[in-house]
Amino acid sequence: MLASFYSHHARMAPWAPRRQTSRFLHALRALGSSANALCKEVPKVRGKTWFLSALCVGLLLIAYAAAFAAIPQSDDFAGTTLKSFWKTMDVGQSDGGSVTVKDGKIYPIGSGADLWGTTFQCFIVYQDNITGNFRATIEVDKTPIPDHSDGWSSTGLMIASPSILQYNDTQELPAFWVAALTNNNGFEMKGTPAATAIGDSATAAAGTKPPAWVRLEKIGSTITGQYSTDGKTFANIRSPMVLKNADGSPYTGPVVFAIYVQSHDGDNMGDPILSNLVVEEIPAGTVEGTIKDASGKPISGAVVNAVGGGSATTDANGKYSMMLKVGDYTLVPGSSAADFQPVTVTVVKDQTVTKDFVGTPLPTFSLSTAAGIAKWKLFTYSDNGDAAMIAKDGTDFAAADPAFNDTGWDDVDVPGDVAGTVGTNTYFWYRAHFRMPAAFSALKDRPITITNFQIDDSDWTYLNGHLLGSMSWMWNTNRTYIIDPAWVNWDGDNVLAIKGYQGGGGAGMNVTAADGPTMFASSAYFGVLKGKMLIAGSSLPAEGATLTLTSADGKSTYTATPDAQGGYQITNMLGGSYSGTVAGRTVTGTSPTTLAVDVPGGKVTTAPDLQVSYAPFKIEKPDAAISDDFSASTLNAKWTATDLGTTDAGDQSISN
Q1: Residue 331 — φ and ψ, nearest 5°?
Q2: CB atoms closer than 10 angstroms to residue 598
Q3: Which of these, 195, 239, 431, 453, has the minimum number of CB atoms within 10 Å of its CB?
Q4: Chain segment 499-517, per-residue pLDDT in tens
Q5: Which residue, 281, 303, 320, sits at the end of a domain?
């Protein structure tokens, strides 16, 4: 039996070296089956049964170790039968998916709508109970529906929590991330920031056509999606993401690994072609530690960034832990409470490195009425529900000017619900007067963050006449805006002016925490980049465009999209040099083609405007046989009118 086993697996030697890791695990699993059969024979063998017993136990232990560190298996898709380690499934309410294998290619066929809110549908060919750290790469030879009208049909790779196998569109979304090539919108990485969360996506390299390669890396809970147009050089689709539980904590259990296809066209099927799935184990170790302030108090919610690796957030006890690929990293913690000196660590396979941090306090203060620093005023428009008056009020921004006289406005406590004062479908204003605390005087060159407040329902927030940001119909969403230190009156009165719109229910800062809004100085190691993305030759926002910025060392990636005014703002960027490009569904180019910018830590940097060009819309000549401009005085003979059911006699007429 053992001779048969070794003879069988000796034939695996010709496999490519880069596939040997997963093939070795496959061999170990087969070894387990042989060991199990051998153990059953031990009682039947006379003589030195202790030797055979020891042998079978050893073989089983090896096999069990492999089972508990089972990365996905590679596949060259040889032959005409799908290998037994694969399973298939329609995810969500898609159905009819199938798969065939032939001549080194895999042909999955599937339908499904795209990730939208809390809905997701697709077809997957998957391996489950996957553990360990690995890199999986597959070649895309054909996208699902190359001539699809909207171009978002896609295929690639997926890593998900096991709950994906029970998801049916009526449940909350499972935790997953997909790296894929779309029909004509380039590569995308999409998924859920946390289990049950609303879906999220980002794109890169618009217009890429097959052949192309997509890759997913899993290091602990960190998932990185990458792409290549030559199979040799890979770049990140977006910043690494984390597979999370519903409570936001990292998911650390076994995962589902899958080949994925989605038609993005309901029940219509997409039929991509893929080949050469290569899976490699990634040696990794762990970095952990505790973050405290100068008094020794643990800091929760601090984010520890491993440049070029991933990040981890501290828990209530100030502890963090993250798994990283073997190598050297710079750790840079970020927190609103303190500044931290970056440190360098070396990660060794299967070992744990401990790095603790003690921070230098950053000044912070509350603008709540109770804190006593700011005095708040409130004004609401008296439009009596008149649509014309409401529209006029929407264009009035005079109160954003710090010189505006608000002495006649009502005093108001912040936070608090002002629904009793502010009517429904009505605009209103907050204004707060305050002086900067003395603790900020030594940091006059640092950006300041204002956060920890919400406006029910929409807001336009200004400091000393400068627009900080705006959100529409996000009544319970935390606002976080960056203040350029040049906009601050360091030695006198500052005016925070917030225009709001109330669409019903509660109003104003009704769900803001008791100490909100709050302001704090930014870290010396993180910078802020702001700029504009505009439609070429206009002042209109470049809707549907995404800016992707990558650091000079290739280790850090950030993305941004324009707001309603065309502006974008990226906070907490590690200081350094970056280059950026713009992609989008119909984006054809930008001026400049590449954005090159230096972002120093502890500073606000304004980038040159990006002028974005789009593909023109093609307007077809109307078909006279079925079109009608209704310019005649009588109905064209091509039309027939009739009453359906038991309705009364209908009629029609044409004019103008």
Answers
A1: -95, 125
A2: 14
A3: 239
A4: 999 988 889 998 888 888 9
A5: 281
Q: Which two tokens stand for residue 622?
A: 């109307």
In a domain, 619, yes or no: no
Contacts of 534 (CB under 8 A, 6+ apart): 540, 541, 542, 562, 566, 609, 610, 611, 612
How far is 586 from 560, CA to CA, in rounded Å?
A: 17
Q: Domain check: are 157 and 187 in the same one?
A: yes
Residue 24: domain span: 2-67
- For residue 525, the one-letter residue type is Y
Ramachandran category for residue 491: left, alpha or beta (phi over 0 → left; psi -120 to 50 → alpha):
alpha
Is the pLDDT at 126 greater than 80? The verdict is yes
User: Two tokens at 465?
Assistant: 């006449």
pTM of the model: 0.65
Would the pLDDT of 5 be above 80? Answer: no
Q: Distance between CA atoms of 226 and 179, rounded to whole angstroms?
A: 7
- As given in the structure block, the two tokens for residue 654 are 């044409």
Does residue 508 share a domain with residue 405?
yes
Residue 3 has pLDDT above 50, yes or no: no
What integer is the mean pLDDT of 147-156? Answer: 80
Closest to 586 in 3D by CA, of 149, 126, 196, 143: 149
139 and 58 housed in the same domain: no
Rounded Cα distance, 440 and 428, in Å: 31
d(CA 455, CA 112): 37
Exposed (0-12), middle (13-18) or buried (19+): which is 487, by Cβ within 10 Å? middle
pLDDT at 511: 81
- Of 345, 362, 379, the one marking the end of a domain is 362
Mean pLDDT value of segment 198-215:
88
Residue type, 8: H
- Tokens linked to 407: 């002495």
Average pLDDT over residues 168-183: 88
Question: What are the Cα distances from residue 438, in Å, to 442, 443, 463?
Answer: 8, 10, 19
Residues 586 and 502 in one domain: no
- Reading the block at residue 187, the tokens are 């590569």
390, 312: one domain: no
- Per the domain annotation, does 448 fall within a domain? yes
Residue 371 · residue 415 · CB < 8 Å: no
What's the CA gap between 475 and 497, in Å, rounded? 18
Residue 597 lies in a domain: yes
In whole angstroms, what is the distance from residue 275 CA to residue 641 CA?
56
Contact assessment for residue 264 and residue 585, using Cβ atoms and an 8 Å cutoff: no
Give me 346's structure tokens: 């070396």
